[in-house]
């Protein structure tokens, strides 16, 4: 589903995605319309502009991902401001692409987003990881009666470590000599055990656990 308040841009993006064989189930031009239509058609991937009338894109993202954690949101924005990128990710966006990206780059980004990979315009991924590192230096106090963290298998920990290093599922599969599907299964199992919703949250968890430096 494609959400943008500029009809020509929205139609062009939808047309490029459809021409590449992707199924564009809906489009929307403002925030409230985006929420209504997304709830009705339940897309796998939402290509979302941030600057929307009626409701900001980050609020649209927060509402839809909150109701459906399986939804993947790829922000497609003209803004490369760090605050906008971080706010989008904290609202549940899986990736962030600037509108200066070419059509093929966008198509590839949508496919990777659908597969669960966090996709960022070069330079922005480092920004997001850097923010998570900063957050990880401020430990959250834990109650003495808090249950112990769930136990991950050695292979799940190994996959999690590579996720934290920024590798795609395909790269992880090649590194560990296992199938792409097996990597996805390990990630899904880990998400379930840790009660996390998406890969971005998983990266934050791994960084907080120090696995990206291992």
From TrEMBL:
Keyword flag Phosphoprotein: yes
Gene Ontology molecular function: any one: DNA binding
Domain HTH luxR-type: start-end pairs: 145-210
InterPro entries linked to this entry: CheY-like_superfamily, NreC/VraR/RcsB-like_REC, Sig_transdc_resp-reg_C-effctor, Sig_transdc_resp-reg_receiver, Tscrpt_reg_LuxR_C, WalR-like
Keywords: DNA-binding, Phosphoprotein
Response regulatory domain: residues covered: 1-114
Modified sites of kind 4-aspartylphosphate: 49
Keyword DNA-binding in annotation: yes
CDD domains given in the database record: LuxR_C_like (cd06170), REC_NarL-like (cd17535)
Pfam family, one: GerE
Name the record gives this protein: DNA-binding response regulator
Organism name: Streptomyces amritsarensis
């Amino acid at each position: 589903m494609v959400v943008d308040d500029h009809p020509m841009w929205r139609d062009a993006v939808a047309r490029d995605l459809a021409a590449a064989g992707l199924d564009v189930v809906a489009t929307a031009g403002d925030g409230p319309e985006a929420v209504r239509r997304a709830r009705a058609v339940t897309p796998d991937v939402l290509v979302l502009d941030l600057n929307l009338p009626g409701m900001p894109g980050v609020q649209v993202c927060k509402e839809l991902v909150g109701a459906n954690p399986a939804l993947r949101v790829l922000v497609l924005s003209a803004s490369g401001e760090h605050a906008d990128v971080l706010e989008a990710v904290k609202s549940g966006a899986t990736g962030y692409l600037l509108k200066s990206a070419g059509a093929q780059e966008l198509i590839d980004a949508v496919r990777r987003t659908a597969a669960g990979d966090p996709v960022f315009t070069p330079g922005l991924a480092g920004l997001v990881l850097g923010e998570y590192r900063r957050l990880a230096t401020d430990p959250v106090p834990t109650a003495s009666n808090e249950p112990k963290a769930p136990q991950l298998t050695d292979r799940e920990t190994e996959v999690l470590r590579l996720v934290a290093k920024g590798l795609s599922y395909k790269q992880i599969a090649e590194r560990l000599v296992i199938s792409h599907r097996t990597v996805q299964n390990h990630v899904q199992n880990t998400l379930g055990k840790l009660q996390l919703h998406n890969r971005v949250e998983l990266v934050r968890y791994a960084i907080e656990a120090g696995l990206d430096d291992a």
